[in-house]
Amino acid sequence: MHLTREEERTLNGEDGETLQKAIEILVALGDIYGADKLIPIKSAQIAGVSYKTIGDAGLEWISDLNGKVKVPAVLNPAGMDMLRWEEMGVDAEFAKKQHEIVAAYEKLGIQTKCTCTPYYLDGFDVKYGDHLAWSESSAVSYSNSVLGARTNREGGPSALSAALVGKTANFGYHLDEMREPVIAVDVDCELTGSDYGALGYLAGKTIGSRVPIFYMQSKPSKDELKSLGAALAASGAVALYHVEGVSPDAVKLNYERPDETLSVGKEDILEVYEKTAMIGDEIRDTDIVTVGCPHCSPDEMQKIAAMLHGKTLQKEMWVCTSREVADRYPELVNTIEKSGAKVVCDTCMVVSPAANNFQCMMVNSGKALSYVPSMCKVSAKYGSIEKCIEEAGVLDEN
Ligand code: F3S
Question: HEC profile for 283-319?
Answer without folding.
Answer: CCCCCEEEECCCCCCHHHHHHHHHHHCCEEECCEEEE
